[in-house]
Design goal:
The structure is a single chain. By secondary structure, the protein is of the alpha/beta class. The protein has helices at residues 15-31, 45-51, 57-62, 81-90, 136-152, 168-182, 191-199, 214-217, 228-244, 290-293, 308-318, 338-353, 367-376, 387-392, 413-424; strands at 35-36, 42-44, 74-76, 101-110, 122-131, 158-164, 249-250, 262-270, 280-286, 301-307, 330-334, 358-360, 381-385, 394-399, 405-409. The strands form three sheets. Strands 1-4-5-10-9-8-6-7 form an eight-stranded mixed sheet, sandwiched between helices.
Length: 426
């Protein structure tokens, strides 16, 4: 039996990296006052078709939809924003006086796509959503939060790219210009783009197949169609980013692949050599109509999503993953009669209750084999028990790094380990 294609088992030795990343993300979220939310792994299919968009690749090609049981059809969540906004509406968080509601999530998402480097069918995503404010400073804060995450991990070769998709009036004007631009070459585009052209022409600009087609370079820019309100809003976002010290590039060709985006859109990309053809690490933007589309009041929102596999890949690529502490504090080495075994069990429990990471042998190995196991587990100390030690009411405590060994009363083993640890700076 093998794991399903596009999934992976995270084993000891690897999972510690994930724990390190997750802990850091939680810490940064708290500094920005974002609270964790946990939503179901599956939702009604209608939630994603209405919010993400029926013409998107996610809905048309990538969703894992479950077989109907009764009237409802369910889909494993392909992204986090729709679920969070649904929870915001369902639980009437819009009634809180503390707005915007600032939330973050972390967990598995599911997309049926071709597995490749850093991209899986079960992927893991961290994301934030700030719902309830149309202040341009919130846009800048969200972008700054994403930027801070990558910088805090030590990544240096990253680029922030921003664009404005404008309001409904601006997008409609741009939409008509795109249709006029691409219609003469429609037959030269891929089948998906031919279908999208009149349904959602902005998606044509996001096509991976036709991105090198000459018409892409000369396509009308959304920035040329922004009305005064949208233009002013975008200028304010950029001014706030300047104030926050976030370096960015304005790219009028940047569009996000989901239908709910309005005004600000952004991505963070890796510029490190050898990272691969797909350089996007993070993407997000504003979605002012989404809450209302899902059945809530007319409230604006903005957020982003970070693929954790892609983040870890970037950390490995730039060589900034730290050496993580995975060893034991203490390994109890015991050999002898029943009283020795019982004493070892009692001592092990005492050490754990004192806060030490501790273990012992359970395979009846001789002393030599137990010391080898202690080495494999990177134990800092070994506590050695035999018939003589138990009869004296003591144990031999060995510092593994130096080989230093001292005799200690059983009642004082924990205190002696703590004393030696503090003296060695461990």
């Amino acid at each position: 039996m093998k794991a399903p294609r596009g999934t992976q088992d995270l084993l000891p030795g690897t999972v510690e990296t994930w724990q390190y990343v997750e802990e850091k993300l939680r810490d940064i979220s708290a500094r920005y006052n974002y609270k964790e939310i946990r939503t179901p792994i599956f939702e009604t299919t209608d939630l994603f078709t209405r919010s993400v968009g029926e013409t998107t690749d996610i809905v048309q090609k990538e969703m894992f939809t479950l077989v109907k049981k009764g009237k409802d059809e369910y889909t494993l969540r392909p992204e986090g924003t729709a679920s969070v906004v649904r929870a915001f509406v369902t639980n009437k968080l819009f009634g809180s006086p503390d707005q915007p509601t600032k939330l973050y999530y972390m967990g598995p998402m599911f997309r049926y796509e071709r597995p490749q480097k850093g991209r899986f069918r079960q992927l893991h995503q961290y994301g934030v959503e700030a719902i309830g404010s149309s202040d341009s400073a919130v846009d800048a804060e969200v972008i700054s939060l994403a930027y801070t995450i990558y910088k805090s991990f030590g990544l240096k070769k990253i680029k922030v790219v921003v664009n404005s998709l404008g309001d409904a009036e601006s997008r409609n004007a741009h939409r008509e210009a795109l249709i006029r631009h691409f219609e003469p070459v429609q037959d030269e585009l891929c089948q998906d783009c031919q279908t999208r052209l009149h349904q959602n022409p902005l998606r044509v600009l996001d096509c991976k197949v036709d991105r090198d087609h000459p018409s892409m370079k000369s396509a009308p820019s959304i920035l040329d169609f922004l009305n005064e309100e949208s233009k002013t809003y975008f200028e304010k976002v950029l001014a706030h980013l300047d104030a926050l010290g976030v370096a960015y590039v304005v790219d009028p060709t940047l569009v996000r692949g989901l239908d709910y985006y309005t005004h600000t859109a952004f991505e963070i990309m890796s510029e490190a050599e050898g990272f691969g053809a797909i350089t996007t690490l993070c993407g997000g933007g504003r979605y002012n109509g989404l809450v209302q589309d899902i059945g809530g009041p007319d409230m604006p929102g903005i957020g982003f999503g970070i693929g954790l596999e892609r983040l870890i890949l970037a950390l490995e690529n730039e060589g900034v993953l730290p050496e993580l502490e995975t060893g034991l504090d203490v390994f109890v080495v015991a050999q002898g009669g029943t009283e020795v075994e019982v004493t070892a069990t009692r001592l092990l429990q005492l050490l754990r209750s004192e806060g030490f990471k501790a273990d012992r042998d359970y395979l009846g190995r001789k002393f030599k084999g137990q010391f080898k196991q202690a080495d494999r587990l990177n134990a800092k100390f070994t506590v050695i028990l035999g018939d003589d030690e138990v009869e004296r009411g003591s144990a031999s405590l060995k510092v593994m790094a130096t080989g230093e060994q001292v005799d200690v009363p059983l009642s004082a083993v924990a205190d002696k380990i703590r004393e030696l640890s503090e003296g060695a700076g461990q």
